[in-house]
């Protein structure tokens, strides 16, 4: 395949010169000036009027919640955790595939070609269902790391003191809140790692102790051992909310990151999702171990978790990547929006504009930074040797008229409507703004039917969630009002 006539985003110069791209066997062979030599047999692709950028790499999402977009208003992370397990526990095998596939199609149509999906774990998915979840990405034509959630402690036991506030009439309903025995979870994860049938450069596995407070130390060290044995990534929600940060001091006598460090979890394969309440020492530990942070500024604002200090992460040497988080707190799966949020969130941290994230820094995080976090060494760039995962933005769009600074416009103007074509591994998955194998009308019928069924199945759980909302809400607001040695809220407490 020889792609001619289009512009190519160049982050170094903030320009978009005309360049040809030669692709063979799914990889980029050469990038060069117009008129690049190509074999006579190469298929010619006309990219006139199009800007090409590397497929965006999303470092954090949850495919299991794609049927839940727009379901909550004014929900904190902790209230989300009250309701979420019951919602996903009711997914049939078909719904698991459907939910994942729906998100994959959305991401591809919005320029994202790879993601890390912290998805159903054990309980709530069998090995066969996990394989089907991986198949959903293959069916959609997307690259992914699928990391099943592992936990052996319920949300109510994870937050010290919370269970004492749950009335006895509701305690039974909270007992099995999405956790499995540590032995069962690790055994299933090991089996999955051994038997995974998918090509690992398309859909690989990761290991996700979901939130450290929800996992015993033994479970987390078992996760680290498995990750070493199978050379896969580790992924966890770390210091996402102030409730987690304060609770870690109570549970561990230390920050969550320092505790993970003491257990040997940090390494180049480790990604912190969120990291809003990381202090300098936490960031240094992550940097010293070559670890990543998946910065999800939109979710952090949506759930009121605060504003992460992404500049400080970069300064101290942490690999910065970008995520949206899931559809029940994002709610679309739009990486352009995630980049824009990362930019805006950085700017409102303070007046020194020299510390704000620049557009090229954000694009690097959303491509190369994500590729590193996912453990895919050959995506995230349009350069010889890299996989041909390429997005073609239509410059005949009002977002791009006029073409001033392509890096700024990708972060600040593009809204997800621009991708005209998307290729993954050198093959078109989106062409002329249509997903090549997905009929959106048919998908909509299946999704609506699943939604109706879920509404019936989850009614009892939603009633329990409603009964618990005020109790959990009040308790967690109290925790979040406690002193912590760093501040990540936009306004001082009490204002
Ligand atoms: Zn998350």
UniProtKB/TrEMBL annotation:
GO molecular function, one term: hydrolase activity, acting on carbon-nitrogen (but not peptide) bonds
Domain Amidohydrolase-related: from-to ranges: 54-427
Keyword Lipid metabolism appears in the UniProt entry: no
Gene3D superfamilies assigned: Metal-dependent hydrolases (3.20.20.140), Urease, subunit C, domain 1 (2.30.40.10)
Keywords: Hydrolase
Coiled coil, from the record: none
Domain of life (superkingdom): Bacteria
Protein family (similarity comment): Belongs to the metallo-dependent hydrolases superfamily. ATZ/TRZ family.
Name of the protein in its database record: Cytosine/adenosine deaminase-related metal-dependent hydrolase
């Amino acid at each position: 395949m020889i792609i001619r006539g289009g512009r190519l985003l160049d982050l170094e110069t903030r320009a978009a010169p005309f360049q040809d791209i030669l692709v063979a066997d799914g990889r980029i062979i050469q990038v060069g000036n117009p008129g690049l030599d190509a074999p006579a047999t190469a298929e010619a692709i006309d990219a006139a009027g199009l800007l090409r950028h590397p497929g965006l790499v999303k470092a954090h999402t949850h495919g299991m919640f794609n049927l839940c977009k727009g379901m909550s208003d004014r929900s904190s992370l902790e209230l989300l955790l009250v309701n979420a397990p019951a919602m996903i526990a009711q997914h049939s095998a078909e719904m698991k595939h459907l939910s994942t596939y729906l998100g994959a199609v959305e991401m591809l149509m919005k320029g994202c070609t790879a993601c890390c999906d912290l998805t159903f774990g054990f309980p709530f998915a069998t090995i066969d269902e996990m394989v089907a979840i991986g198949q959903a990405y293959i069916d959609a034509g997307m690259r992914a790391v699928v990391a099943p959630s592992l936990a052996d402690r319920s949300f109510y036991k994870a937050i010290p003191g919370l269970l004492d506030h749950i009335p006895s009439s509701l305690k039974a309903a909270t007992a099995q809140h999405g956790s499995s025995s540590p032995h069962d979870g690790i055994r299933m994860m090991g089996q999955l790692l051994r038997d995974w049938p998918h090509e690992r450069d398309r859909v690989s596995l990761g290991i996700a102790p979901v939130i450290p407070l929800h996992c015993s130390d033994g479970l987390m060290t078992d996760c680290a051992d498995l990750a070493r044995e199978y050379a896969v990534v580790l992924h966890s929600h770390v210091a996402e909310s102030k409730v987690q940060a304060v609770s870690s001091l109570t549970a561990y006598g230390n920050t969550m990151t320092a505790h993970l460090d003491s257990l040997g979890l940090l390494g180049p394969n480790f990604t912190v999702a969120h990291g809003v309440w990381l202090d300098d020492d936490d960031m240094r530990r992550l940097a010293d171990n070559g670890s990543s942070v998946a910065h999800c500024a939109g979710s952090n604002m949506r759930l009121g978790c605060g504003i992460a200090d992404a500049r400080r992460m970069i300064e101290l040497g942490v690999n910065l990547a970008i995520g949206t988080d899931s559809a029940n707190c994002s709610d679309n799966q739009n990486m352009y929006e995630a980049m824009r949020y990362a930019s805006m969130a950085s700017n409102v941290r303070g007046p020194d504009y020299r510390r704000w994230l620049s557009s090229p820094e954000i694009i690097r995080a959303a491509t190369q930074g994500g590729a590193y976090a996912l453990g895919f060494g050959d995506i995230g760039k349009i350069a010889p040797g890299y996989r041909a995962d390429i997005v073609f933005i239509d410059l005949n769009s009002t977002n791009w008229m006029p073409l001033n600074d392509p890096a700024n416009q990708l972060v600040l103007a593009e809204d997800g409507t621009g991708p005209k074509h998307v290729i993954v591994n050198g093959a078109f998955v989106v062409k002329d703004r249509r997903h090549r194998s997905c009929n959106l009308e048919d998908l909509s019928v299946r999704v609506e039917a699943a939604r109706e069924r879920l509404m019936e199945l989850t009614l009892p759980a939603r009633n329990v969630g409603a009964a618990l909302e005020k109790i959990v809400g009040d308790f967690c607001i109290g925790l979040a009002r406690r002193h912590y040695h760093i501040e990540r809220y936009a306004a001082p407490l009490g204002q």
